[in-house]
Amino acid sequence: MNRLMDNWLELTEGKRTATHSVVGRDRSDSDHYVEIIEFPSYEQAMENSKLPETNRIFEEMVALCDGMPTFTDLDVVRDEQLNKTTARRFFEEIAVGGNLGLVDELFADDYRDHDISKEEETTVGSDVIKADVTGWRKAFDFDFTIDSQVAEGDQVVTRWTWRGTHQDVFMGLPATGRTTDMTGVTIFSFRDGRIREGWWTYDLLRVMRQVGVVEM
Predict the structure, then answer these.
(1) Taking a C-beta distance cutoff of 8 angstroms, is the pair 97, 168 a contact?
(2) I want to staple 45 with a disulfide (CB 3.0 to 4.6 A). Which of 39, 93, 108, 213 is the partner?
(3) Which residues sit opposite 29 in a β-bridge?
(4) CB atoms within 10 A of CB 107
(5) pTM (2 decimals)?
(6) What's one Pfam family the UniProt record gives for this protein (predicted)?
């Protein structure tokens, strides 16, 4: 199955309309395989089926099977990527909403954090998130806009825009009442449905410049 899939990908490069493929093997029957292929539309799926390369791989697949493979056309009625939802809950309910009690539910106890603003390359523990959120919420009245999210494997990449009003001490500077904004990217890695590691990249210098911590 892996050989056939790799061969099909190579032969249909630049021609196929498929966007996502998953091949699964039945744990209770090792000879039973299920392949799910995603297309932007039914019409494009039909275009893909007409490719001679698709027909060739299908014939090879039939040769591997004890009987004729069965096909089912499915319309997506719900598409829920749970890790993406969990990542979004951090930004909306914890960071903006201030629900620190939710941290222990969403983050692993041994959570590892990588943040460009910190001297230590890696900090460990869910309390790191609580302390960071508390500090930012004290210094700023802010909000997040989720610009985009991409999920692959056990990782979720979130591109966001942050906007806040400087309301308390930030990097030694008393409240100025100035508004500020920055963009950033956060990558969360998941284990058993909880966030186990995070990487933060954001334009901290822009915030420092806008509130007057540094002059440019």
Answers:
(1) no
(2) 39
(3) none
(4) 25
(5) 0.77
(6) SnoaL
Tokens of 98: 């201030």
d(CA 170, CA 191): 34
pLDDT tens digit sequence for 49-92: 888 888 888 888 888 888 888 888 888 887 768 899 999 999 99
Closest CA to 129 of 107, 149, 146, 156: 107
The token duo for 37 is 């292929």
Task: Give the distance between the most distant pair of CA atoms in the chain.
Answer: 75
Query: Which sign, positive or negative, has the C-alpha torsion 139, 141, 145, 149?
Result: positive
* CB count in 10 Å sphere of residue 36: 11
Closest CA to 123 of 199, 201, 208, 183: 199
Residue 80 CA to residue 39 CA, distance in Å, equals 17
Amino acid at site 187: I
Do residues 177 and 166 touch, judged by C-beta distance below 8 A? yes
Distance between terminal CA atoms of the chain? Answer: 59
